[in-house]
Amino acid sequence: xxxxxxxxxxxxxxxxxxxxxxxxxxxxxxxxxxxxxxxxxxxxxxxxxxxxxxxxxxxxxxxxxxxxxxxxxxxxxxxxxxxxxxxxxxxxxxxxxxxxxxxxxxxxxxxxxxxxxxxxxxxxxxxxxxxxxxxxxxxxxxxxxxxxxxxxxxxxxxxxxxxxxxxxxxxxxxxxxxxxxxxxxxxxxxxxxxxxxxxxxxxxxxxxxxxxxxxxxxxxxxxxxxxxxxxxxxxxxxxxxxxxxxxxxxxxxxxxxxxxxx
Length: 262
Fold this sequence. Notes:
Blueprint: E1 4-6, H1 20-29, E2 32-38, H2 45-54, E3 58-62, H3 75-87, E4 91-98, H4 106-122, E5 127-132, H5 135-145, E6 150-152, H6 159-167, E7 170-174, H7 184-192, E8 198-200, H8 222-232, H9 237-252
Parallel strand pairs: 1-2, 2-3, 3-4, 4-5, 5-6, 6-7, 7-8
């Protein structure tokens, strides 16, 4: 039997507040045995901590996301260091670079990203990276920081960029986008990457798969992402489940044991 890990999901999001217990239960019923939950700004760190404390299969990360630059202050980096030391999350993040947003302040984004890479290295934690229209600069900053453990979530760069990131020790996660037949380049990439570099994600409540287009996404639908990966690759669905789950456990050092259901 399969066991899956949602490597990037915002289960603490307010859009899930009304029925969060049911959302979590549906994920568990779908054999999603763990969820990695990244916070995006200082204001939301306590909410992420509280949600993950309520559900032991949810694992928190803390970071400063590039799409929330108006909320971030210089002092938040110092606070983040305190949170990392006190809370010992499974990763730093979500952070990174986003050049797709309107009028991005690239220099400020880069400074904030560099500071979080430095913290991840200092605390020996993996880092969860958001990279939109900015993969080249993400790679440059990784090299500059000398921090070689992390995840680029919802990866949508080129095959050449993917392999450079893998060579740097990074893994890539894929979600609902790969279930759309029009995503030909992305689907071809998923088909050819080494399996030990791939993780699965939903990014719920955003980025639903093609079978739930237009709906609020949720972690139970990770099975549809898994199914899409299985259809694109030569390995069995069971092998893909086992390997991607092991990849997530190894990267985030999750206190998760995978047992075979009889």
